[in-house]
């Protein structure tokens, strides 16, 4: 079998690739920010004093972690539409990704919270700190610092998993690539470009998270601890 690579038909579509990459990054950034907030809230609830709330969060985490992301996206997009709530594909994709990554973030942050030595909590209690002061100043900062590499990996995986959103016609990078290959009939070349674009975006995201860590965790920078 002989195959001649020809990338020239794709040159006219570079604005489409850029637009798709931008949509992917916007989708990933939105899901990362809101998913992080949701995950932290769920982790605090899971490790809190309310047994009922802890069970509810535990059920949510198990439900999300044991069902496919694609099914979750379909439920949000088609399910809400069936109920009469018509939302754009980008919005539905964002909601599904937030709900999905929030569950994984919850477990990662929970592990960080449970790694805090009891002595630190006792010291905070001796200083008459309130529960919220203890959480904000004693528990969360070191907990998130310890699990930051795991969070970084999770959010990069989230960006890669966003390609599934092409199944509901969200105009992210994979959806754009599918349309381009159907126009040019250069499937191999199109998906090679697509793979390179995802690789580049993954490296960019890891670099951004690394810079954020340098700002957020100066102690690690001074000690030279890997982020």
Structure description:
This protein has 227 residues and is mainly alpha-helical. It has one domain (14-223): MetI-like (MetI-like fold, Orthogonal Bundle), CATH 1.10.3720.10. The chain has 9 helices and no strands. Helix 1 runs antiparallel to helix 2 (51-65) and helix 7 (173-184) packs antiparallel against helix 8 (187-216). It is elongated. The chain starts with 13 loop residues before the first helix and ends with a helix. 30% of the residues are buried. The mean pLDDT is 90.
The level 1 CATH classification is Mainly Alpha
Number of strands: 0
Radius of gyration: 21 Å
What class do helices, strands and sheet pairing give?
mainly alpha
Taking the alpha carbons of the first and last residues, their distance comes to 46 Å
Spans of at least 5 consecutive residues whose pLDDT stays below 50 are none
> Number of helix segments?
9
* Shape call: elongated
CATH fold-level assignment: MetI-like fold
Order of helices and strands: HHHHHHHHH
Strand content: under 5%
- Give the % helix: over 70%
Whole-number tally of structural domains: 1
Strand count, sense and barrel status of the largest sheet are:
none
CATH architectural group: Orthogonal Bundle
CATH superfamily: MetI-like
pLDDT averaged over residues: 90
Annotation keywords:
227 residues; mainly alpha
Reconstruct the topology from this structure.
Blueprint: H1 14-46, H2 51-65, H3 69-82, H4 89-114, H5 118-126, H6 131-161, H7 173-184, H8 187-216, H9 218-223
